[in-house]
Amino acid sequence: MTQYAPNLDAIARLAETALADIPPELRQYTRDLVLKVEDFPDDGVVEEMGLESPFDLLGLYQGVAMPLQSVSYAHPEPHRVFLYRRPILDYWCETGEALDDIVRHVLIHEIGHHFGFSDEDMERIEGE
């Protein structure tokens, strides 16, 4: 029996399910987030972040974190969370973790950036 890697839509469905599981008191602040699933980060992101490979990034938040927004803040571009399918699938194959758990973790991590948490903050919270 041949198995196929989940496509972009399948990863998006996993992400939407994970987003629906976020507690309502937090989810209300994600209404303006645009969720995008792409195979890889674009070349500009790879270069800007100094990545050795596009496989080095599972997800990305683009926008202005909530604590940095002011009353006069105008939304020139939507806040976006990108999930990168191919790096996620590689991680899935390497670790054997459940794919839905990986997608949930990456999504929540990127939403954490929307709330203004640093990577260090999120590592500490996960460790507690």
TrEMBL record:
Q: Name one Pfam family in it.
A: Zincin_1
Assigned keywords, A-Z: Kinase, Transferase
Show the CDD domains listed in the entry: MMP_ACEL2062
Q: Name one GO molecular function term.
A: kinase activity
Q: What is this protein called?
A: Acetylglutamate kinase
Q: Which organism is it from?
A: Elstera litoralis
The lineage, from the top, is: Bacteria, Pseudomonadati, Pseudomonadota, Alphaproteobacteria, Rhodospirillales
